[in-house]
Amino acid sequence: MLSENQKHMLENKALAIRIDSIRATTASQSGHPTSCLSASDIISVLFFSVLNYDYENPLNPNNDRFILSKGHAIPVVYATLKQIGVISDSELLSLRKVDSRLEGHPTPRFPYNEAATGSLGQGLSIGLGMALNARFDKRNYKTYVMMGDGEVAEGSIWEAAELASFYKLNNLIGILDCNRLGQSDETQHGHEVERYRKKFEAFGWKTCVINGHDINEIYKAFEESAKPHEQPFIIIAKTMKGYGLEACENKEGFHGKPFKKEEAEVAIARLKERFAHAASFQGSAHTPPTPQKELLKPHALIEPDITQENFKIGSKIATRKAYGYALAALGRASKDVYVLDADVKNSTFTELFEKEFPNRFVQCFIAEQNMVGISAGLALRGKIPFAATFGAFFSRAFDQIRMAGIGHNALRLCGSHCGVSIGEDGPSQMALEDLAMMRSVPNSIVLYPSDATSAYKLCTTAANYHDGVSYLRTTRMETPILYSAQEEFPLGGCKVLRQSNNDVACLVGAGVTLHEALKAYELLAKEGISVSVIDLYSIKPLDSKTLTKVARKSREHIITIEDHYKAGGIGEAVSSSLINENIKIKQLYVHDVSRSGQPEELLALAGIDAKSIYDAVKEIL
Amino acid sequence: MLSENQKHMLENKALAIRIDSIRATTASQSGHPTSCLSASDIISVLFFSVLNYDYENPLNPNNDRFILSKGHAIPVVYATLKQIGVISDSELLSLRKVDSRLEGHPTPRFPYNEAATGSLGQGLSIGLGMALNARFDKRNYKTYVMMGDGEVAEGSIWEAAELASFYKLNNLIGILDCNRLGQSDETQHGHEVERYRKKFEAFGWKTCVINGHDINEIYKAFEESAKPHEQPFIIIAKTMKGYGLEACENKEGFHGKPFKKEEAEVAIARLKERFAHAASFQGSAHTPPTPQKELLKPHALIEPDITQENFKIGSKIATRKAYGYALAALGRASKDVYVLDADVKNSTFTELFEKEFPNRFVQCFIAEQNMVGISAGLALRGKIPFAATFGAFFSRAFDQIRMAGIGHNALRLCGSHCGVSIGEDGPSQMALEDLAMMRSVPNSIVLYPSDATSAYKLCTTAANYHDGVSYLRTTRMETPILYSAQEEFPLGGCKVLRQSNNDVACLVGAGVTLHEALKAYELLAKEGISVSVIDLYSIKPLDSKTLTKVARKSREHIITIEDHYKAGGIGEAVSSSLINENIKIKQLYVHDVSRSGQPEELLALAGIDAKSIYDAVKEIL
């Protein structure tokens, strides 16, 4: 029960947060003050009476987590953290300036931002990952996710809502700031908050509908959320955009519009007048108790032992299957390794991990956006999550992957069934743009093994890469093992598999096209024609040094062959990297939409099989 | 009310469909027979007693539409069309063969496939577009979308569900084939079909739960769906995967597993035994009446008159705003032009179209996947839809865009707010990978105007491009108008804006970087250094001929400058295209995650402002 004094304090803080949200956005002359005003009362109650948080260490694994999914309202959090003493007033007023940690939407440059948000509808999945993490680690912290009503039109919200209820995550608390107004229009449900209640209940959540500007109601809702229950919990708060200022309160046309300096002064005066009682508070503010001090543990190097696998040179095994073996081995080597699936575990072979570690396996069903968001949440809490699906279907989660790049989140993604070589299932199932997509992510690494040994070892590389997104591209069909267990695959390297003193060209392949290149090598050898062959297992970073060196000894001719479209693929990466080296490059790639057919037929149709490579070499001569 | 004879016929057809689904997948030794068996009874009733369809002309605008969102079950449709006489038995048995129109998942190579599906969860949005189209054109056809229960975990389904109810699309009928089993696991709700009812009702749909193997119940459900109602309607059918064959019926482990030849023979014999009554039907089959014959009208060339706009060389206007003017002009020139928004119409300036043509403007709210899916549905029905949002947020719909590429759907997408030049909002709002994404789509065109005139004219190019996806990249900030109304911008061309006999390098820019290049030109000119400058308004196709020609006269040096990441961007496109021309290329691009700040500061930080270009030229000298 809220005491009068405490209520007075919370009202006072809400007022201060409102004022500072306005001051900060006015100082930057950009931002979304009215979106802050609708959330201020809830944020005040949450931070000053609910959140158990160690403000000396935002990474403390015992901290409650708070994710602002409606990222454009982040000044409301900065204003709050000023009240708590985390930032100074002058830092607050540096909002959105080029040298400030306080960006327009949350990024990890400010460590109190739990996750990069601002592309809407993503916060609930990240929170779901954090709530799962608490369960995995048997920790008591709670995860709070504040959403705007506009963003719950995003399907990703419902992917997360469904899975959170499936896993009965009663430690996940959603807060819906229903301020009725989107950027340019009223939302679909406007202020019919019961519509949201009905939806979340249908999705298995416990709901609580409140007036989001009544401190007592807000407090009670959080109290309610703390009582024992078996489902995720959502507070659906009816609020007013611009609350506190009659001139813009609940009115269209004020989204993302900061007040001019003079307007801000009038607005602040008006707020102090309207909330005169709140302004009169004299006591001191308290935040809830700090949880036990603890540091997020650093990652240890994981080194599974590949000699335990039965990988014999020449024997055939699909890289996607070797990935499954590698996951299981990583699982044995580290308790931090978790694996996520989108109902294709028998295709990606993540089932090999699940069999051994069912408690560290998360079935996310057919909802790739949510799977990636959960991965981000787990990674941010120190886990080493691997998520796999068909490479084509990661396009479904490109926005989440993009945001993970901005957040420097260590996602480990594996896309199986790349390219036309999957065969009969046809173009909808073929990843032919995944390299372009994954290469574009800042700080990403992109790995493309051609055999089981390299797949296994590159999977380990991903496990130990903590600075951003890693992507491993695996192949459906079986390919012969090329490398012994002793072979190393340093990040940013490549393997020169064939080389002589008479090479007329250098063939650069990866995955299935490497094997086609090796076949072409044999065809050409029969005619006395020598070529060098390179396994480009590391697409990003790219070993342009070795490529150049080998090309110099191969009549300065490279032929890249890839089971991928041209744009953003291997040929473009190599060309752009060697453009100033006076090397001729011929690019073989998939030109157009493929079709159903046998893998060999489709490789031939696309012009990336051994015969096409052979022809390309002959053309050069 | 269903007569006994008609019921008998429908049961007979269901049996034939089952048998042929098995025969086809056995012939191809790949495919998903058990997913066909759960749907066969519903498909029989739908095709033989519900669908009004002109089988001589699948494009007839009066046809009812049927979209198989669970695309892997497409043999069930092929088997049905054999019964109707559209395909022969031998064509049926060509399923998934390289020279067959009948692919493993639906593609438009077979014209009776309404849309390319197979990436799950996309069909309802496409159907929504078609249902909207019927309303726009005041046509009576209905749109039926069959979904699997596994795929309704995809958030895109709920984006579509919400909007369909918002627009009260009572001509849209969903069919949920709840066969309980996904690919690798039971679905989240298993056979608890009431959970789906609750969800769809919460999303505003009228629901009808049935036994999906009871012909009477199925028939009644469709009858019910035909009665007057104000909401979209969904038939939630409890079914068994593999229904009819005890060995696999409702059992895990049979997804995507065709029967071997001998197994198929046993299975077919068993089906004939189990459905002996159905097998005994002797009468003739009828399909429902064919709708009025009509051809889908071909697209006329749209030519709006740019001289009506007040575009004066040198005056400043953002390309995003010119896009809005162009849309309005296109709307005046053609009644087929429609515009879709994701609640950012005041940022993308699609509001300029809405103001004039509110009835041809579709507010999709913050749900980009659905917006793109609706666009596909409208385009497939002959409309010319334009969809716009921040370029960054199209990454949310990459899978839908990818599938539109496979479907050769003429989406017209405009991504505003590209690059770091948006400034203070920070990295989450900056499109820096959109060129990579859009270039990778087969048959796409990618246009990037630098001024209002070219934005307007390239928007017209997109309106008249019907062979695939077109993408227009627009800029937030105002830029000076460079071109007169008479200037033409042919697809695949570029503009040489500066050229002399003494050029030491060729600067290639587009959008904001073109203006920075022009500033650099002035800085260099002051020092007596000449460079050529090219406006690369057509990124795909790319004018490598002109680039080469100008580079030859610019000391064979090109500097590309782009407000985009390296991967898949302008520098890579140009490099890979000119790799064999002995031209040196220096690429200036955004290296890392950007931040909040003023546009000019961020351009400088990224090294793509005039000063950086100036430095790059000096370095070459």
Structure description:
The structure is a homodimer of 621-residue chains. The first copy, chain A, has 621 residues and is an alpha/beta fold. Chain A is elongated. Helices cover 38% and strands 16% of the residues of chain A. In chain A, helix 3 (40-50) packs across helix 9 (215-226), helix 6 (123-137) crosses helix 15 (368-380) and helix 12 packs across helix 18. Chain A contains 23 helices and 19 strands. In chain A, the strands form 4 sheets. Chain A has a 7-stranded mixed beta sheet, with helices on both faces. Chains A and B meet through helix 7, helix 8, helix 13, helix 16 and helix 17 of A and helix 6, helix 7, helix 12, helix 15 and helix 16 of B.
Task: Describe this structure in a few short sentences.
By secondary structure, chain A is an alpha/beta fold. Chain A is built from 23 helices and 19 strands.
Architecture blueprint of SSEs:
The structure is a homodimer of 621-residue chains.
Chain A: H1 4-28, H2 33-37, H3 40-50, E1 65-68, H4 75-84, H5 89-92, H6 123-137, E2 143-148, H7 155-166, E3 172-178, H8 193-202, E4 206-211, H9 215-226, E5 233-238, H10 261-274, H11 276-279, E6 316-318, H12 319-333, E7 337-341, H13 345-348, H14 351-356, E8 361-363, H15 368-380, E9 384-390, H16 398-406, E10 412-416, H17 434-439, E11 445-447, H18 452-463, E12 470-473, E13 478-480, E14 495-498, E15 503-509, H19 512-526, E16 530-535, E17 538-540, H20 544-552, E18 557-565, H21 570-578, E19 584-590, H22 599-606, H23 610-620
Parallel strand pairs in A: 1-2, 2-3, 3-5, 4-5, 7-8, 7-9, 9-10, 10-12, 11-12, 15-16, 15-18, 18-19
Antiparallel strand pairs in A: 6-13, 11-17, 14-16
Helix pairs in contact in A: 1-3, 1-4, 1-10, 3-9, 6-7, 6-15, 12-18, 15-16, 19-23
